[in-house]
Fold:
Amino acid sequence: MTDPITIATGVQDIVVRLRAADRRTFDWFIDCNMATAWVGDRFRIFPGKYGEDPLWGAASELGYADGATVAEAFAQPSSAFTRPVMPPNVPPGTAGLHGAVWFESIYQDPADPSGRTLYALYHNENYPETLPFDPATGEGYRDEAWPPGLGGDDTVQAVPRIGIMHSTDGGERWQDRGLLLEDRDERMIRLPVNRNYCFPGGVGDPSAVADGEFLYVFFGEYAYPTAWDAATWDRDVEAAAQCISVARVPLAALDAPTGAARRWDGRAFAAPWDGPGAPIASLRIPREEGGGAVSQGDELYHWGPSVSWNEDLQVWVMVMGRVDGPFWAGDSLYLSINPHRELGEGDASQRWSTPVRIIHRPGHKLWYPSLQPTDSPVDLAAKRTSLRLGREARLWFKDGFGIEGVDYQHIYISDFVLELGREGDA
Structure:
């Protein structure tokens, strides 16, 4: 396209203008949100995956690279990435890190002027093999009626959790601080009901923003809201408890987060860190529009939020994906606006607009959208990141296409500049 596409957001007179730009590509593995931070005068990115995974194999692809500008960081060749020092995986039944991790969001301690004190919120996936159920603690998963996973009928599903790691050297070395959010085994949705080839439950793909004394964590919520049983399972009960949710944790608790977070329960941040919350109602897809239960595989729901504060318009912005079918298929990306600055005030954290579609590529799988700053003098001077942006940003996402098992490929690309403005602006 040559002329920008203008899309009304439904919030005040705010519009999205999507402008085609020269394609930018990326030369490192990514399967998550793109976490970014300025460390000193270098823009640093943290993509990739690390740790044990019995389905896809052990991964050592979590890395970081940087540049004097945003474009320089994203253009780095794979040879320029460094693998950080990570905590090791430990055997089942042992306290420590289990499963694989992906860094999804970075909180930078403002008390450190060097920018080197970082907290990474990570997406963590486990299987009954890597985290078997422990009746003494209630942690882990029973290998009973476990549904098939992304690799097909001969594989098993993973359960996502969210944790926090800490670095004091800009991301060169990381220490695990423990879990922030999880769902327990009793709420996993098993066979014969589950047919999504994705997750049986759990929480994942976090995007975190600081406001006041709290870190607000937006994430996907996938479990049943009560103890699950195939005989009493109810599609509508399941669906009402799933989609994109939010929790918050005191900034003072980031070094010991387990048990400190509270999920939104429909009225307040009062649900426990490992109990069911209430998803953001405006982001749920109505049943009459195809929305429904995650376990079914052919019912729609939004996932994968990436949240930022727009300093120009003074609004929160969320970009996200949508699952349209089994195996996490979805060919569209969406955007939502929240004009309420104080997320802890009343139900402000819930007041997101109905998502509007900004990208549609039939036949493709579109995952992990994020907005990243430009190299404008204003963005560079303000050291903007994926969490704090101006009027314009580059839209990045993962694009999967081709014939499965023949020539299928994933690429992480930016084809567009996304501008947020008001109707009538030049």
Summary: The chain is about 5% helix and 40% strand.
